């Protein structure tokens, strides 16, 4: 049976950690939302984001729950749990490589953000972001969740500020919404699109979220006090994240004149609202990227070593140095346009395995690494 008690403080921390992880450089810079949602036109983009939310709630329900119930020693074991030994191993290593590619993309996003505002060399900015994130990951899982759990709500707050500013601007000029939305759909806008179909973009973005966060969702679920608490935090986090997407779609549409051609659309919007907000938002974006990078390098390295060990520190340092080198030379918007859609497509088959195991045949693909009965925190077997 599942433990029914819920620690509200813990749920808030886990929701914050979810938002901090998801609101990485792709989202916080605005490139992700621009290519997956805003590029379809504002209204269709918003509908597409709601479709994304529905899928992500299913993913979080399953992965947060199984993370709490199974308490995997290696979070990547979730692939074997859902897909069986052989397909699970393929997905495990594919996920590691894919997540590392997204990590490099986020490093490039951090460098592009600081370069756009200060004019500092992209390579130096990328290196600083990488090293600070590495230092945080070395602190371990629990400390990381505590840190980024505080950062997540701050990110949501500033997305709300940008959204409110967009609505105020829209009130003074209602034609901006429809006019810019129509212009975005033309080739003259120059906007890269993740998919040629607005409906599919929302579905694809959900599968990107699945593959991007599988191991982190499991780790987050493990940190909860019960299955119910784990699932609730994942689903609430999805709602807040979707709200941030919708606000950003509106803002990018209303302020498209300043967004066009920018590597970091959100920063351009913030500077248009007021230069002071631009400076503050730069700090927020850097925090977004820092928290996501810290989480990702920890999750990736956990495949090779347990955190808080010398081996973990050595592997994390090596992966960070390689990421710094690659992230300093590749353009951010092109990385997003190539890597993120591929990530989404790769999640489709894995989703089918989740549906089959979770909702159709729970005895499929028996998990062999730990034959002990699952034990809840109150000591009762289930």
From TrEMBL:
Signal peptide: none
Protein name, entry field: Amino acid permease
Presence of the UniProt keyword Transmembrane in the record: yes
Entry keywords, A to Z: Membrane, Transmembrane, Transmembrane helix
Ranges annotated as spanning the membrane: 12-30, 42-64, 91-114, 120-141, 148-171, 198-220, 232-256, 276-300, 312-332, 338-356
Organism per entry: Clostridium fermenticellae
Domain of life: Bacteria
């Amino acid at each position: 049976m599942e433990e029914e008690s819920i620690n509200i403080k813990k749920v808030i921390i886990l929701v914050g950690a979810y938002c901090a992880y998801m609101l990485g450089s792709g989202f916080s810079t605005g490139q992700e939302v621009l290519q997956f949602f805003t590029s379809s036109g504002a209204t269709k983009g918003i509908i597409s984001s709601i479709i994304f939310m529905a899928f992500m709630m299913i993913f979080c329900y399953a992965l947060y729950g199984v993370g709490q119930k199974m308490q995997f020693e290696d979070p990547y074991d979730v692939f074997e749990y859902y897909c069986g030994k052989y397909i699970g191993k393929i997905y495990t290593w594919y996920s590691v490589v894919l997540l590392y590619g997204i990590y490099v993309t986020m490093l490039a996003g951090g460098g592009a953000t600081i370069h756009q505002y200060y004019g500092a060399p992209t390579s130096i900015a990328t290196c600083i972001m990488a090293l600070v994130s590495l230092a945080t990951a070395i602190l371990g899982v629990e400390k990381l969740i505590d840190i980024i759990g505080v950062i997540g709500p701050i990110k949501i707050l500033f997305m709300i500020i940008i959204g409110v500013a967009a609505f105020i601007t829209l009130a003074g000029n209602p034609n901006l919404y429809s006019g810019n939305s129509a212009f975005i759909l033309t080739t003259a806008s120059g906007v890269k699109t993740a998919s040629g179909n607005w409906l599919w973009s929302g579905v694809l973005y959900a599968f990107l979220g699945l593959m991007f966060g599988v191991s982190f969702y499991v780790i987050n679920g493990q940190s909860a006090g019960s299955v119910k608490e784990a699932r609730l935090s994942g689903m609430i986090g999805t709602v807040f994240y979707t709200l941030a997407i919708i606000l950003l779609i509106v803002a990018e549409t209303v302020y498209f004149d300043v967004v066009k051609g920018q590597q970091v659309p959100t920063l351009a919007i913030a500077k248009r609202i007021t230069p002071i907000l631009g400076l503050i938002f730069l700090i927020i974006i850097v925090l977004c990227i820092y928290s996501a990078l810290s989480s990702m390098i920890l999750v990736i390295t956990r495949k090779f070593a347990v955190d808080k060990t010398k081996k973990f520190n050595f592997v994390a340092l090596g992966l960070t140095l390689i990421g710094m080198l690659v992230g300093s030379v590749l353009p951010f918007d092109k990385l997003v346009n190539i890597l993120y859609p591929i990530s989404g497509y790769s999640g489709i088959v894995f989703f089918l395995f989740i549906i089959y195991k979770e909702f159709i045949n729970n005895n499929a693909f028996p998990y062999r690494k730990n034959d002990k009965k699952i034990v809840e925190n109150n000591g009762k077997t289930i």
